[in-house]
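Budget justification, computational time. The allocation requested in the original proposal was used primarily to generate structure tokens for proteins on the priority list. As evidence of use, we reproduce two of the resulting records. The first is shown immediately below.
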Amino acid sequence: MINRVIIKNFKGIKYADISFSQKNVIVGNNGVGKSTILEAISLALGQNNYGFELTPYLFHRSTWNNLNKSFLPSIIIEVYLDNISGYEEFTGKNNTLRTECLGIKFEAKFDESYIELIEAEELTQIPCEYYTISRSWFSEDVVKPFLQPFSVQVINSASSLHNVKMTQFITRHLQSNLSDEQNRHLKTTLRGLRDNFNANKKVSDVNKELTEIAKEADIPVALIYTYFKNKEVLFDAVVSSVYINFESVFDEEESLEKGSASERFDEVGENYIHELLKERKKLIILMDKSSGTKHTEAKQKLISQMQAHIEVSLKRQSKEEYDPMLTHILASNFTEGLLEIARHYQSEKWAKDMLKLIARCYYKGVESL
């Protein structure tokens, strides 16, 4: 039975030391590493190791930057086992705790014999093609998969590591038909392509934008690409609760026969906007970061609705004809003022006071025409 697991630099886990009992339940929010623990254990115990490919993205994010050629990062996964009869010879101290016990150690580390090959390179990614992967008992004996006293079965629909069959097929095909040197050259070239791809400003802008969206919407960054097919699906999930049909708000306000424009706003529009500000983070995402989705025109749509509303108010207020650019400017300014309140939100009282001031300036301006 597994009694302990230590994980270092694997995916979303920088370091974890977890004790196990006979029956275990792993509980936690999305994106905190539950599936990663299972993947780490299965990897160390040899489940589906054939065709496994080491990539920089299997290392913890903290290892990606400021790479030191003299001390490149390693992945270590140690599974501590209860004593198994007949396997006493495999006990040892080849583990982090330096404790005499039975267990298996998985390690992915840089092969120092290749140090001269990377000396002239400017490393921007972990050079996985120069890494070795080993599984050994704590006695330092190599684990022989078919002689293990156990088999491993993992049922985990969230795992992205062991269920990508096409990737495994291609990896096995390349390993079988290319020499070690050809494989290394291919991986070095691939690393260069990744560097160029990640260095592309448009790509980095998209990644930065999605990261900001996840942060603002309280969605773990790690789950964006796992649970959302593309940016538009992500936006649908984030902003679905923030849409208010402003046309109906304006229609209700315009249907009031009595009162000035500012009085009608106080009676109808103010409450709607305060409800909207409760979802201010999602409002900002919808208005500022929706490029490339079906919500791209959300801000312009709001401005157009506001412009039409102002035109109705002006007709009620004055018989004079005004250039449509005037109403467009007024609508744009009011919309941007609303967004500025959302962006710099301090408290509900502060937002109400600011909204009243902006509305007063806006409506008094309209009423003066």
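The second record produced under the same allocation is shown here.
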Amino acid sequence: MRHSALFCVATVALIANSASVHAAATRSAVTGRADANSRILLHQRVTNFPKTGDVQIDVIRGTVPPGGSTGWHVHLYPQTSYVLSGSLILQHRDGSRIANMQAGQANVEPAGVVMRAINSSKSIPAVIVLIQVSAPGTPTVKSGS
């Protein structure tokens, strides 16, 4: 469980860097040496992470067009998101949370919460990378309507 969450954070850090830094960070992760250009973008404890033997890791790159939305949806496992470009407003349907995410920011979206992401820009697409560590065969999202 702890290794899954750490892997998730490490994956976000690798995606955020340029291709050359990505290659160096990958080599560093394999050898165990720290790379001077690597940085942790998000370090957050995830509580109540479902226990499972084998895990499935999904890394998804998506684009929310200007004025668009993901629609209401639910993640079955916690999902880490990283905004590559543009910005997004994250909303929980119950009103418990509204967050503004800018390029370069990471966030953990909790499991079981109906939420959506909105791109309020009129001209700039929001590009996001999502990382989910879950039980094998688990879909990354289900409708929250």
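A brief technical remark on that second record: Residues 1-34 have pLDDT under 50 and may be disordered.
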